[in-house]
Amino acid sequence: MIRPVSFTAAALVATMMTAPPTRADEKQDSLEYPVKASLLLNFAKFTEWPAGSAQAVSGAVAICVLGPDPFRGALDATVEGRTVGGRPIEVKLFRQVEGIEACHVLFVASSEAARLAQAFARIGDSPVLTVGEAGDFAERGGVIRLSVENNRARFSVNLGPTEASGLKLSSKLLHVARSVRVGASR
After folding, report:
1. Which of 19, 45, 114, 151 sees the fewest Cβ atoms within 10 Å?
2. pLDDT score, position 3
3. Taking the domains of the chain in order of start, what are their residue ranges?
4. Which pLDDT tens digit goes with each residue over 64-102?
5. Minimal CA–CA distance to 84: which of 61, 55, 58, 50?
């Protein structure tokens, strides 16, 4: 009999995998963001926000995108009809950093790498799970850095900001991360 814990971890790992390699770059690009959208949903499912925080008591779980939306509808389609902890999910798009501290999960598009310091200053110690693509995202104070290597989505975790904000990441999530370290806080 498969234990629920094993099944959940296996489902997370399966979500991280992309389709087999393809020669058409356009087709591969079209798969990258739907896979990343699934990861964002799973990251939310494997995160606990501190009791009493705005994120813990809000009605819906806000998965936000800072900058131009690279998902092109894939994130909306992925979360449609889904819940996290019995709460509905809403997708919010931000062109500016004002208001991002109320997000549960904040995806920082690669185009926003120059504004990371501004975004992290706005968030401060708010319990926002930050996810980004920039190569130095975690070193600069982000929680999860997403990358694509050998046609597979990978992620690394920086626990520094989670400790300061009271976020708790499931050991199941940490187990499938490419690397986990305690590094720079925001």
Report:
1. 114
2. 33
3. 4-181
4. 999 999 999 999 999 999 999 999 999 999 999 999 999
5. 61
**Interval 26-46: pLDDT, tens:** 444 578 999 999 999 999 999
Bridge-partner residues for 157, per DSSP?
144, 180
SS3 139: coil
DSSP letter, residue 17: B
Which tokens in the block code for residue 91? 């997708």
What are the DSSP calls for 61-129, one per residue? Answer: EEEEEESS-TTTTHHHHHHTT-EETTEEEEEEEESSSTTGGG-SEEEE-GGGGGGHHHHHHHHTTS--E
Task: Read off the tokens for 19.
Answer: 């389709």
Tell me if the pTM is above 0.70: yes
**Closest residue by Cα to residue 123 from 149, 143, 97:** 97
Handedness of CA 55, 154, 116, 159 (dihedral sign): positive
Output the CA–CA distances (angstroms, integers) from residue 80 to 31, 46, 122, 162, in the order listed: 18, 18, 28, 27
Residue 14: HSE in the Cβ half-sphere, 13 Å Cα cutoff: 6
Cα–Cα distance, 87 to 152 (Å, whole number): 30
Question: Mean pLDDT across the stretch 147-159?
Answer: 90
What fold characterizes domain 4-181?
A: Rossmann fold (3.40.50)
Strand partners, 168: 48
